[in-house]
Write a structure and sequence with these properties.
mainly alpha, ABC transporter transmembrane region fold, single chain, elongated
């Protein structure tokens, strides 16, 4: 189904109705803007490897004692490329922000318009409280996700593929050694992230139940209600601690793998320099490239974490809106 069809179906939906899937909402409310964001995103990650190549050439020219004017020229080109890439990324981030804020405004107007419609029966206190919460706070993460839902994973995957291709171009054996230490992350990161996602979803539901109990006015009304609220609070605490332990353990393991990648590049690259099979600038560019490979991987992990959380929050919002219909 084309983006235009998604948008047409979204606009043709009944007033106040929202699709259940957050990505259907993204395409419906900002499909055409996502295409422009994709264009900017591709430009950013295609420029990612240019500074690495310039670093390699600058270092090699210094080691070979070539005319310093060459180094000056390359540094000027480096600065120019950085400005172009930075400006493009600035435009991408501002555009993302605008798309996200536009989605927040649209969501708030939908909820507010429905609650305030004169010919609509007055919703219950519970529904009013949920509506106020949605207008004030709950649309924030959803709107922010709309701005980066498509461009963010493409940007990070594009950067990783571009840098990895460049590292293979410099030296396939160093790239193989670094990637070999990257493989364990492909195993433990999805497992730990899935555990985090399950606890995050449970935490959101527990806090929503606690909020509904407070809005109804039953919280603390009797011993049974008080004990139920206390159990929810304890459950939220346990889930939070589980999330912290899993998340920081995953960060610890990822950090260890990242440093081992640099060690492998120094060992293999150092040996190739020692045996005069590669120039020192290649090793410098390779180590810099490893850093640029790990950063988007971490951002990609965070993105998929946000996808799960946002989808849960969005479905809760849709359910609350449907209760008002």
């Amino acid at each position: 189904m084309s983006v235009v069809t998604w948008i047409h179906e979204f606009n043709a939906a009944p007033a106040g109705a929202l699709p259940r899937n957050v990505f259907r909402y993204v395409l419906g409310t900002s499909g055409l803007h996502q295409l422009f964001l994709l264009g900017l995103t591709v430009s950013v990650f295609l420029l990612e490897v240019v500074p690495l190549e310039l670093q390699r050439r600058i270092v090699n020219n210094l080691v070979k004692h070539r005319p310093f004017s060459w180094v000056v020229s390359l540094c000027a080109v480096y600065a120019g490329i950085v400005l172009v890439q930075g400006g493009t990324k600035l435009a991408l981030n501002i555009y993302r922000g605008w798309v996200g804020e536009r989605a927040k405004r649209e969501l708030r107007r939908r909820v507010h318009t429905f609650v305030e419609t004169p010919d609509t029966p007055s919703p219950a206190v519970e529904a009013q409280g949920i509506a106020v919460s949605m207008i004030v706070a709950e649309v924030e993460p959803i709107g922010g996700f709309v701005g980066e839902s498509v461009s963010e994973p493409l940007l990070q995957v594009g950067i990783m593929l571009s840098v990895l291709s460049y590292l293979i171009h410099i030296d396939p054996w160093m790239a193989l050694a670094a990637f070999g230490l990257f493989v364990p992350q492909l195993v433990f990161v999805p497992l730990l992230q899935a555990a985090v996602n399950r606890r995050t979803g449970a935490r959101i539901r527990v806090l929503r139940q606690l909020g509904i109990a407070m809005i109804r006015g039953n919280s603390g009304a009797d011993d049974e209600s008080s004990r139920a609220d206390d159990r929810r609070i304890e459950q939220a605490f346990a889930l939070d601690m589980g999330i912290f332990k899993l998340k920081f353990s995953m960060n610890f393991l990822m950090n260890i793998c990242n440093h081992l990648q640099i060690v492998s590049a120094l060992l293999v690259g150092g040996w190739w320099v020692y045996t005069e099979n590669i120039e020192i600038g290649g090793v410098v560019a390779f180590i810099s490239g490893i850093g640029r490979l790990n950063d988007p991987w971490g951002d990609l992990v965070n993105y998929f974490r946000d996808v799960n959380v946002t989808q849960i929050k969005y479905r809760l919002l849709v359910d609350a809106v449907n209760q008002l219909l």
